[in-house]
Amino acid sequence: MSEKIILLIEDNPDDEALTLRALKNNNIKNEVRVARDGQEALDYFFGENASSNPVPTVVLLDLKLPKVNGLEVLRRIREDKRTEMQPVVILTSSTEEKDLIEGYKLGANSYIKKPVDFGQFMDAVRTLGLYWLVMNETPSPRQGQ
Amino acid sequence: MRRLAELRIRTRLTIIIVMTCTIALLLAGVIIVAYDNHTYQSQKEKSLSAQAKILASAMTASLEFDDSRAAQEYLAQLATNPQIIVAAVYKSNGTLFASYSSSTSVQPPNLAEPQGSRVEGNQVIISSSILQGQRQVGSVYLQASIESLLSRITRYGGIFLLAIGVALLLTLPIALRLHYAIANPIYARSLIEASLDPLITISPNGEITDVNSATIDATGISRDKLIGTDFSNYFTEPTKAKESYLQVFKEGAVTDYPLTIRNINGKLIDVLYNASVYKDEHGEVLGVFAAARDVTARKQAELEINRRTAELQVANQELEAFSYSVSHDLRAPLRAIDGFSLALLEDCSDMLDDMGKGYLSRVRAATQRMGQLIDDMLELARISRVEMRHEAINLSTIAMEVLLDLKKSDENREVEWDVQPDLIAMGDPRLLRVVLDNLIGNAWKYTSRQSHPHIEFGAMSNPEGVTDYFVRDNGAGFNMTYADKLFGAFQRLHATTEFPGTGVGLAIVQRIIHRHGGRVRGEGVPDQGATFYFSLPK
Q: If we measure between CA atoms, which residue out of B223, B194, B218, B236 comes closest to residue B292?
């Protein structure tokens, strides 16, 4: 629990670069791990070397992902005793209401639409980082182990 | 006769029966009178000629001895028969020998008449020769009165009138009873035939007892061949047909029982049967009366609707998948363009001159506009797909909320507004909120250059008697020449630099109002203002 890290689950390299830049420009200097598809994200938590991976303070989850889609990743995270309390913020281009409803049903902690306007996106990332990394207190998910 | 045809069938029948009866009785009367008159006359002739013969044989001796006195005395005895008017005996040479007259006004002819008999008015006249062996010794003349035809008819007339009267008295109740026996079945049959639906009556053992011509058309089989055969023969599912009438006998009726009639030419007709039992006056079940309604067209229309609905569902699913893809995939590259343009502006600003920065700003503005267009396009598609609710809503309250929201987001502007209170309409609250958001939002936007902006929301009755709700402003207005472009998606009547927007708002308004079954139109005068009217059916 010494360092708060962020897990970004994002397949689009442009979005990845922009998100990283937005974090940097907002002075959020926490380590960011990136998973580039749904399977990679699941491996981070449940794969062979999962136990050596630090527990993220917050997961930024895109929905439209190759191999295993974002909602499925969220469902598996919530199903597993080890990760059921993991804070997950959906960060997606989708404006579809059904994605929003499904996301909350599966236990997303937040749902943020990525705006086209990068200025607005910067604001969103700043608020997000401030809230999850500074203000919010979370229980340690692996405390019991 | 035309008037007779206009009368009720019951009255007509009664009149016909009574008239037939009367004519028959009169005809019989006339025949009887004629026959009776004929027999009466010939009887009279016969009896008179018999009397003449008796008289002749009695006169033979007097004539032989030329004793006219004895003859005269004998003839005088005829006075006992009042019918005899004149009697005379002539000698063989034809001269008068002796005579008798009931009164002095009548006299016998002076000379003997030739043998024979005839009727003259009310009298029978007989002339007969007197024979002695083969020799004629003289002749007898008798003239007798008979009762006149007129007096006989007068006497019979009374009897006939009485007979006719009695007959009519007996006929009337019979005629009235016949009304039930004859008129009712005729009436009922004409009703059955008048039906355009195939009608059928079925006996308790399932045999057809009557059909109308619509049934003949439906089956393609003649009436004679249908009657007496099993009802269930004429359907694609005979067992189901049999069950239908068994159910009627059991439960008294069936409604909308689906069956398919098979026409002899192979054509199938889908029908819904409605049937119930009918009873005699004692409540005994006589049979089943069944009416079929041809629903082939309806069923085909249903199939067609189902097919189209399925197609529409597929199209909708495709559209949904398309929208989903657009909302994800189209926006991601836009975000990258905008994001890296900003990154260039921020991170590499010392490498760019003002022109380069200006170009990048244009790239960003265009990207954001495209993002807005995509959002609006998705919204337009969503408005058409979203499920609608129907409830009573207070449009005035929504209008006030919209205006207060606008005021909150644009606090520096002073806008006067006027909202007619408690305008209640039926519709989807969320969609109608979108309508007012757009219309009032437009009014707000297009009055931004007006020194005393005024927005009004109200209702009025249009010339067709339908309530038109309206949003009126005194803003930029528009030229009516382009009114047809108002509601087209991405159509704008003002430059983006003048008033921002993508031109989707009114297209969304029109789609929502059309989905409610209403109409929408706009009126405007450049630089004086615009009014948008919309209707919502009750």
A: B218
- State residue B5's pLDDT score: 62
Residue B532's pLDDT is 94
Asked if A62 and A9 count as a contact pair (C-beta separation under 8 A), the reply is: yes
Alpha carbons A121 and A127: distance in angstroms, whole number: 10
- How many beta carbons lie within 10 A of that of residue A97, not counting itself? 10
pLDDT at B256 over 70: yes
Please, are residues B117 and B125 in contact by the beta-carbon 8 Å criterion?
A: yes
Residues 6+ apart with CB under 8 A from B13: B175, B178, B179, B182, B183
Contact at 8 Å (CB) between B492 and B414?
A: no
Residues of B with Cβ-Cβ distance to A115 under 8 angstroms: 335, 371
Helix (H, G, I), strand (E, B) or coil at B138: strand
Side-chain-side CA neighbours of B299 within 13 Å: the count stands at 12
Would you state the pLDDT for residue A119? Answer: 82
How far is residue A71 CA from its own chain's centroid?
12
Instruction: Summarize pLDDT for B345-378 with one digit per residue, the tens.
Output: 988 989 999 999 999 999 998 898 888 888 888 8
ipTM of the complex model: 0.76
A16 CA: distance to closest CA in chain B (Å): 10
Q: Which of B337, B342, B344 to mutate to test the interface with A (most CBs of A within 10 A)?
A: B342
Task: Answer whether A118 touches B (CB < 8 Å).
Answer: yes
Token code pair at residue B416? 């006067």
Task: Round to whole Å and give the CA distance between B497 and B129.
Answer: 151
Average pLDDT over residues B314-342: 83
Helices (H), B348-428: 354-385, 395-409
